[in-house]
Amino acid sequence: MISTSYQRATLYQKLPKALKSISIYNWHNWTAYIALSIVLLHPVLLLFDPATKFSFVNIVFPIHAPTQRLYVALGTISMFAIVLVILTTQKAIKNRLGFRAWKNIHLISYATGLLFIIHGIVMDPELKNRPVDYLDAEKLASEACFLILLAAVYFRVRYVIKKRQTSKFYKLRISKVISETTDAKTFVLEIPENLKNVFNYIPGQFIQLELTVNGDEYKRAYSLSSSPFTDDGLYFTIKRVKDGIVSNFLNDTITPGDELLVLPPSGNFFKEYSLIAPTHFVFFAGGSGITPIYSIIKSLLHQQPDSHISLIYANRDLDSIIFQRELELLEASYQERLTITHVLSAASVGWSALTGRLDQDKIVQFMHKWKIMPVANTVYYVCGPSPFMELVEQELAYHKIQPSKIHLEKFISISNAEDLLKAGTGLEDIDTVGASLNAQLDGSNHKTSCKKDQILLDVLLANGINAPYSCREGICSSCKAKLVEGMVMMKKHTSLSDTDIKNDQILTCQAFPLSAKIRIDYDNLK
User: Fold this and answer.
1) Which of 295, 315, 324, 485 qualifies as a FRET site for 93, CA 20 to 30 Å off?
2) 348 in Cβ contact with 317 (< 8 Å)
C-alpha cells in the first residue's frame, strides 16, 4: 500500500478521495507499535505463570529454557529483531545510520515475520514436546499469517523488480522511420518479447532517450504517438527545432536498424475516466503537441465507444500538419464521434477552413458550439508551445471550466544551458549550514536539513522519507509539491505550467534551497 501511494500509481489514483486522505504511513507506524507491545507482553506473561517455570534469563538467553529450547530461541531472536527494526526507525537513530543502512535493517522485518510464524506453529501451547497439531485453532491462525507473509513478499519483490526495470535504460532497435512532414519524422521502436511488460504504457505517456552527440551526452523526453491498443511497437514523433542538437541529430542520422537507449514509458497526461455517461473529450494541439494527443484519440476511439472527440489543431500551413493523412482517415471512419478543426496561421490560397492564429474569438466560438452537445461531462487536454497553451488555459478559466477538467502537457525543447527558475518568496541569506526542510507527505510532517547545493528530493530520500518521484529529470511531474514557505531554484521545469508556477508548485527533483527555511506540501496540491 505504501509503495502504491509513494509512486502515485494508477491504482492509487483510482481510490476514493476519502481513502487517499488516510495516511498509510501513520497506519504503518501504529500497527508496528501495537505489534511490538504484543511481542513484549507475551514473554512478560510467561514470567507470571508458575506452570511454565520460565525466568527472565530463560527468555533472553533461551539456551537455558526449561523446554523446547530451539523453538523458544526462534521467538527470542524474532523479538530482538523487531525491537531493532523499530528502534532504528526513530528519527535520531535513523538519521545517524543513513538511508541505505536503515533500509537494509528495515528489510529484516520479512525474516522476523517468518521466525514469529514458525515459532507460533511449532511451539506446544502447553510447552510440552507433543507432535504439532496443524489443525489447532492457534496453528491455523499462524498458518494464515504465513500465507499473508508470502503475499507480502511476492508484492514487495514484484515492486522492487518493476522499480528497477523502469529506472533502467534499454537498448532498442529502430524498425521503421516515417517522414510525416518536411521537418518531422516518426520513429518506430521494436520491443523484444522479453521486454513487453517493461514497456507497457498508457496513452499520452512519454519515453526518455539517452544518446551521445559529438561527444556530449544528452537526455531527452519524447511523447509517444502510438496507441497501446492499435499499434505494434512504440512510435515517437520528433519535429526539428531550430538549433536543436538532439532533434536535428535524430532526424538527420537515425535509420532503420539503429539502436537507441530508452527509458520505459512514464507520465500522467491522460487521466482515465469511467464513462458512466457519454464524455466529450476536447483536445487543443499546437504543432508537434499533437503527438500525445494523437495517441489518446486513437485509444479513445478504440476503447470507449460512448466518447465524443473534438480536436482543434493549430499549425503554420498545410504542409506542417503532422499525421494529416491519418487524421483524415480517422475522421472519415468515426464521423459520428470525431470532429477535427484545423487552424492555419499562413494558409495557402484555396484553404477554406479557419485561418490566422488560434485566438480568443475562435475559442469562444468553439465553446458556444460545444455547449449544445448532448454529453454529461466535458474534459479538456492541451499540448503545444507555451504561448498557445497559455492562451487556451486563460480562455478555459474565463469560461469557468473547473481546473480538474483541464489537463496540460507542456511541450518545449530543452536547451543545453540550465533553465534556472526561482519560485516562492522570502529570500534570506543561506550560509554553508544550509536550510531547514519541512515536508508534509501522506499526513505526516517530516523535518530535516538541506545544504544550499542539495536537491530537495535527494535529501528527503536520503533521510528515509518516501517522497514520490519517477524520471528525476524534471519532465514527468511525479515529484511535484507546493512550496509553502521559503524560496528555491529549479534547474528544469518542463512539466510545470505557468499556472503551476503562480501557485508556487515546484519539482522537488530539480529544486535546491535559496532560503534558510523551506516548507513544502505534497498532500495539498491545488
Assistant:
1) 485
2) yes
